[in-house]
Each structure stands twice: as C-alpha cells, then as structure tokens.
C-alpha cells in the first residue's frame, strides 16, 4: 500500500518573506528578471558556498560504460574500509536542463559522495549525453560526452542511463554491491531521466529497489499550482522562476519536437495508473520556492492513486537546485533522507 503523503506545513504568505539561509540570499535578488540585472556583489554572494564541502572516506574511479550511442562516462564512488555484506547501489543523474551539467558539479559529485558516505553505499554518477542549446538560449553546442556531439534528443540521454543500470546489475560483484538493492535517482532534469528510466526498466522486467527523485520534472506541461504553491511562488525572485516560455524552450530542446507528443517514455506523468502501478518504492522531494514543485506533487499523487509506495516531501526554505549549494543545511538534510532510504533497501 502507498505511504501516506505527508501534509505540507504552510508556506509563508505573499506578504511575509521566506526564512532560512538560502531565503535570506533570495531576498537580495529582488525583482531582477535575469542575471544580467543582478548586482555583481549580490551574484557573488548568491553563488558563494554556505560552508565547507563535506569530506567522506570515499574512493572514486572514472570509467566508460558501453552504451547504444557510444561509451557513457561514469564515476564510481565506493566507501573505504571493509564491508561485511554487499552494499546497496545508487545510479545517480545530475541535473542541468538536459543541456548542461557534468560529473564535477556539486549536484553530481557532492551528492554522490555524501550519499555513499552516509549510507555505506556504492554510487555510480552518470555523465549522460547532453542536448544542444536552442538559438533562444544562445545556441551553444553541448559539451561532448562519450565522443559524440550534436543531434542529441530524447530518448538518447535515457538510453545512456539505462545502459549504466544494466552494467551496474551485471557488475554488482565487481562493485561490491547487491544486484537486488539497486536504486535509480536524479535531480531536476536528472530526476526526469531517473523517473522515465525506472518506468522503462520496470516494464522490461528489470527490477529496481527504489527511485529517488529530487525536484524532478515529470510533465510536458506543468500542472496548475495549488493556493499554497502559488503563495510560495509569488515571493520567489523572478530570476529563479521557470516561466512558461523558458520551460517550452527546454522541453523542445530535450524532445526535439512537440513535448506533448513525447509520451511516458520521456515524461512519465503521461503513463496510465496501470503502468505506474508496477513501480518500486519512490521518494520525491521538491523545493519550496520552485515552479517545478507542482510537477513533483502531481506525479506523487498519480503514484499514490496507482498504489505505489510513494513519499513526497517539500524541502522548505530553498529554491530549485538546492543540492548544488555546498554547505547548505537543507542539502545535508536531503542527503540524510536519501541515505536513510538506501540503508533500508
């Protein structure tokens, strides 16, 4: 039976400023609609770490995994020291609007390292293929991944992730991991890839132990916000928002066509309850001051209605992408919860 969805604590009203370390920096952003409108000192303060990066006794190994579109770079994080049983394993996908991001960004490296250390788990961070920026966003070509460049659209990034999961299962003994305790997770665009790939693998008969989705986008078009969500978004600085035109550009870059015609293989919210019902335990976390939180909430509702064991929480006081903020208390709390789930597998 599905886990009860926790009731959300009230968000600050539109007349009250949000609270927390990140929220204090948010207020300094004011009404700027773009980063070019933000004072340089304010931008530097916004990007500054909140504290020291975490240190864990975790070793790393970079390697390339065979995939249908060429090699897929990964970084394997393994806790140091003896383990008296096979460890759980998390395949992790960073975010970046499907067009940006790499294995060095905190949302990839710090999260993989932090979960591996906390949970005594193996984490495989995936450097999946990226899509080129459309002209509206500058038209910059995607960073080359695995020797390929250009022409990347769905389902190619998901194919990369799928290949890594298959490799992790087949290489579990080598990795010191339990093939029956493999979870797939990701943040933002990576959360989309993790959700869609989990559905795909489940329907292929490949069991996963859990799905960890951090502020994902599961819909081609964002659902309408609730009154509470609208109140939080009304005090979110415009520069941190995802207006419809921006969402459309990112979706089109990813899909390479009409996002509404993409189907559940790209946006899992398109899936019927019957298809969703077979999904594994799913943890979904959204950020309070984030347009994408409506997708997290609506997808969690769909999973609950399909009798999936789902838990949805809202991380209060933060905007989209808080796992990229080194030293942030809320980022540590998110990794604590992810690690707890990995230990429970």
TrEMBL record:
Matching InterPro entries: AB_hydrolase_3, AB_hydrolase_fold, GDXG_lipolytic_enzyme
Pfam families given in the database record: Abhydrolase_3
Region of interest: Disordered: 1-31
Keywords attached to this entry: Hydrolase
Domain of life: Bacteria
GO molecular function: hydrolase activity
Compositionally biased tracts (Basic and acidic residues): 21-30
Sequence ranges assigned to domain Alpha/beta hydrolase fold-3 in this UniProt record: 90-131, 154-322
Name of protein: Alpha/beta hydrolase fold domain-containing protein
Originating organism: Brachybacterium halotolerans
């Amino acid at each position: 039976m599905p886990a009860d969805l926790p009731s959300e604590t009230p968000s600050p009203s539109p007349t009250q400023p949000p609270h927390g370390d990140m929220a204090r920096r948010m207020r300094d952003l004011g009404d700027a609609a773009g980063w070019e409108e933000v004072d340089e000192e304010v931008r530097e303060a916004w990007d500054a770490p909140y504290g020291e990066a975490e240190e864990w006794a975790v070793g790393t190994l970079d390697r390339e995994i065979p995939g249908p579109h060429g090699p897929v770079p990964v970084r394997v994080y393994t806790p140091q020291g003896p383990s008296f049983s096979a460890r759980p394993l998390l395949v992790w996908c960073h975010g970046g609007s499907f067009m940006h991001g790499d294995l060095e960004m905190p949302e990839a490296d710090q999260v993989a390292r932090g979960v591996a250390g906390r949970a005594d788990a193996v984490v495989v961070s995936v450097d999946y293929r990226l899509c080129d920026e459309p002209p509206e966003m500058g038209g910059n070509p995607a960073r080359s991944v695995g020797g390929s460049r250009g022409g990347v659209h769905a389902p190619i990034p998901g194919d990369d992730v799928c290949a890594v999961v298959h490799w992790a299962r087949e290489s579990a003994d080598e990795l010191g991991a339990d093939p029956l305790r493999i979870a797939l997770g990701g943040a933002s665009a990576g959360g989309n890839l993790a959700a869609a790939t989990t559905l795909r693998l489940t329907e292929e008969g490949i069991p996963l132990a859990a799905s960890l989705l951090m502020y994902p986008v599961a819909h081609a078009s964002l659902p309408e916000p609730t009154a509470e969500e609208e109140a939080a978004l009304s005090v979110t600085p415009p520069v941190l928002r995802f207006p419809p035109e921006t969402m459309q550009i990112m979706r089109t870059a990813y899909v390479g066509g009409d996002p509404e015609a993409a189907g559940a293989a790209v946006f899992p919210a398109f899936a019927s309850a019957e298809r969703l019902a077979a999904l594994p335990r799913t943890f979904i976390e959204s950020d309070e001051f984030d347009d994408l939180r409506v997708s997290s909430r609506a997808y969690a509702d769909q999973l609950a209605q399909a009798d999936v064991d789902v838990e949805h929480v809202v991380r209060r006081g933060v905007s989209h992408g808080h796992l990229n903020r080194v030293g942030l208390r809320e980022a540590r709390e998110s990794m604590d919860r992810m690690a707890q789930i990995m230990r429970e597998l």
